[in-house]
Amino acid sequence: MASTLPDVARHESSAIPLALNWVGMRGIAIPLMPGSPEIAPLAATADLAVDLPDPHAKGIHMSRLYRLLGTFAQQGELSPRSLQRLLRDMIESHADCGSRAARIGLEFGLLQQRPALRTPGLAGWKSYPVNVQAMHRGHATWVELAVRIQYSSTCPCSAALSRQAVRDAFAEDFSDTALVARGDVLDWISARASLATPHSQRSEAEVRIRLSADADALPLLALINCAETALATPVQTAVKRADEQAFALLNGANLMYVEDAARRLRWALEQHFSACSVSVSHHESLHPHDAVASCATPGWERMD
């Protein structure tokens, strides 16, 4: 019965003879095995496509790609090496269409438990959005790993202005006193040291690295830890007062413009991963718009 059903993609030609760069599917639900005992199985979505260089071909065979993706999810752990095999299988499955390139994109949230800064035994969960892009063309395979990190940023200019305001208020309040008793200073600090406070905001960085296609694992935790260490002020989960105070101290010790954050990240990532691309956004509390910055290792080009 199946042999009598029409196969338009195979037996009809395109009315407009033009080659297509990419044809495929987007947003396919798929379970993934991360290949690390520290990471639970992942619920992901996948985008996948092949090129269609034959201008007369009506279309690709999407069911072939879908089945290959299902086999990939069942048989192996997620790694650059396994993605390279999948891409080659996708191209081979469309040899009758003349396909010479394939690409796949994966998105998922990586859940990690993070401890409080000070309180023993206190922890909470954070979700890190992850994006993996892989492409095979000719004899080359490219694999990129990107993670988004949330952190707090306190404006250096606002901090300086706040300190100046506190200094001026102190000078005015004690303008008639040549020597101020230590107790009076401490009381003044407790009452008025926060009369002006610097503005800070939740911020986000996307860090992207390129991996060897022969690698057996994705350095997910290594990339996250490197970025959070460089920024020094990642957002917290469960906190008590001691943890909140410790977070305030970290912000005070790590004042940063959006430019500072981008430079910190690029410098740290290049020490561990050689090449990277960084994009940061500070969701301003002073302005109704964001401050943004980006940078990349010289020679870096986005995969296409």
From TrEMBL:
Swiss-Prot/TrEMBL keywords: Hydrolase
Q: Where does the source fall among the domains of life?
A: Bacteria
Site note May be catalytically important applies to 155
- Which reactions appear under catalytic activity for this entry? GTP + H2O = 7,8-dihydroneopterin 3'-triphosphate + formate + H(+)
- Associated pathway: Cofactor biosynthesis; 7,8-dihydroneopterin triphosphate biosynthesis; 7,8-dihydroneopterin triphosphate from GTP: step 1/1
Identify one Pfam family in the record. Answer: GCHY-1
A GO term for molecular function: GTP cyclohydrolase I activity
Instruction: Specify the enzyme's EC class, one word.
Output: hydrolase
Q: Which Gene3D superfamilies match?
A: Urate Oxidase
Any idea of its EC number? 3.5.4.16
What family name appears in the similarity comment? Belongs to the GTP cyclohydrolase IV family.
The UniProt function text for this chain reads: Converts GTP to 7,8-dihydroneopterin triphosphate.
Name used for this protein in its record: GTP cyclohydrolase FolE2
What is this organism's lineage? Bacteria, Pseudomonadati, Pseudomonadota, Betaproteobacteria, Burkholderiales
